[in-house]
Amino acid sequence: MLIMDRDCKRGGERFAIPTQGEVQGKLTVLEVVAITCLREVLASKNAFAVAALKKKVLRAMKEQCAPFGLSSEDETSVLEYACEFFEEASKEAARQAARKVAAKSAGTARSRASGHG
């Protein structure tokens, strides 16, 4: 069962071993929230906001990785993956924007061709 406050509990409940479904569910939630938020920022077309967010994410990733004692190679790999995630999200946001523009242009062209524009 997905329980948000489990991490705040004391004792054995906090350390209960999650099922594979719980782990997959939590990862899915985190992925969907992250992608949705990132799409919103990227859709704003504010290059400064996107760059600032990317910088914050990379800094937070470094801070989150520090307690795990990752090797410098693993930490670099994690940061590169985060950058790739941003780049792919940026490309997808650009593709979505292009599709919207193309659809709007096609609708305008159809409207003019039918004499309603």
Give a written overview of the molecule.
The chain starts with 19 loop residues before the first helix and ends with a helix. It has one domain. It is built from three helices and no strands. The mean pLDDT is 78. The chain has 117 residues and is mostly helical.
Could you list some keywords that capture this structure?
mainly alpha
Structural shape? elongated
What is the chain-wise order of helices and strands? HHH
Strand content: under 5%
Low-confidence stretches: none
Rg, Å, rounded: 21 Å
Tally of separate domains: 1
Number of E-state strands: 0
Distance between the amino and carboxyl termini: 55 Å
* Share of helix, binned: over 70%
| Helix/strand class | mainly alpha
In DSSP terms (H or I, runs of 4 or more residues), the helix count works out at 3
* Arithmetic mean pLDDT: 78
The biggest beta sheet, please? none
Summarize, please:
This protein has helices at 20-43, 47-65, 72-113. The protein is built from 3 helices and no strands. It is an all-alpha fold.
Describe the protein's topology.
Elements: H1 20-43, H2 47-65, H3 72-113
